[in-house]
Amino acid sequence: MDIMLFHSIYGLRPAVHEAAGRLRDAGHQVHVPDLFDGQTVETAEEGRALKDKIGKEELLRRAVLAAAPYSERGLVYVGFSLGGSIAQNLALGDEKARGLMLLHGTSDIAENASVDELPVQLHVADPDPFESHDWLTAWYLRMRQVGADVEVYRYAGAGHLYTDPGLPDYDEAAAEETWRTGLAFIESL
Q: Pairing mode, if any, of strands 29-31 and 99-103?
């Protein structure tokens, strides 16, 4: 399976490479674009400032350019937080997308979005300061309306980026459960 893996607002950190390694060990070809051109940050505030400096449209342009050489084969899009938002946008716009796995983040859904039973799996902390229950309910219903086949997994007590061992949010048990469930999902595609 070809997987396009997008980093979080912290940039292309070791945790993203570790995640790519897990996916490669499971037999997948993984592409990991660096949307921040080599920059990483230490705090979410620095990450938001960098994201704003680059701009949403430029980040999406970079992501589309990174995915384009592989999209004909049917990609599975995976992303962490900000990267999940980007992965979602690309998957909903790619008629050949084979699946979408979101870790810690979602995005608004375009009015004209439409997919044909796109398999989607979301893994999120419960509660999550950036993905409220009301937001997730509305997001789930809207994803179903556009034709996605959505599964949502919530991890009580975990911090927002609970799969990143280099951050204070890290929750080993929740991270391992996420990877077990996520790898089985990808294998099913």
A: unpaired
Distance from C-alpha of 140 to C-alpha of 124, rounded to nearest angstrom? 13
How many angstroms separate the CA atoms of 120 and 24, rounded?
Answer: 20
> Which tokens in the block code for residue 107?
């995005």
- Written in H, E and C, the secondary structure of the chain is CEEEEECECCECCHHHHHHHHHHHHCCCEEECCCCCCCCCCCCHHHHHHHHHHHCHHHHHHHHHHHHHHHHHHCCEEEEECHHHHHHHHHHHHCCCCCEEEEECCCCCCCCCCCCCCCEEEEEEEECCCCCCHHHHHHHHHHHHHCCCEEEEEEEECCCCCCCCCCCCCCCHHHHHHHHHHHHHHHHHC
Domains: count for the chain: 1
Lowest mean pLDDT among 60-69, 87-96, 106-115: 106-115
Query: 128 with 105: CB under 8 angstroms?
Result: no
The C-alpha atoms of residue 150 and residue 117 are separated, in whole angstroms, by: 9
Identify the CATH number of the domain in which residue 78 sits.
3.40.50.1820
pLDDT per residue as tens digits for the range 45-69: 999 999 999 999 999 999 999 999 9
- Tokens representing 22 are 């897990």
Structural domain containing residue 9: 2-188
